[in-house]
Amino acid sequence: MMENRNMKFVCLGIGGAGMNMCASLEKENLENLEIFAINTDKQQMDKSPIKNKILIGESITKGFGCGGDPEIGKQCAIADLDKLSYIFDNVDIVFITCGMGGGTGTGASSEIAKLAKSKNCLVISIVTTPFKFEGDTRRKKAQFGIVELNKYTDNIVIISNDNIMFSMGESSLNDSFRASDAVLVDSIKTILSVLKTTGVLNLDFADIKHSMENKKLTMINKSHAKGKNKIIEAAKLCSYNPLLEYSIKNAQTIILNVKGSSDISLDDVDKCVTYFKNISKTKLDVIFGFELDDNLKDEINLYLIATDYVKIDDNSQDIELSRVNANVNLHSNIDEQINEDDDLLDIVPEFLKTIKMENK
Question: Which of left, alpha, beta for 222 (phi over 0: left; psi -120 to 50: alpha)?
Answer without folding.
Answer: beta
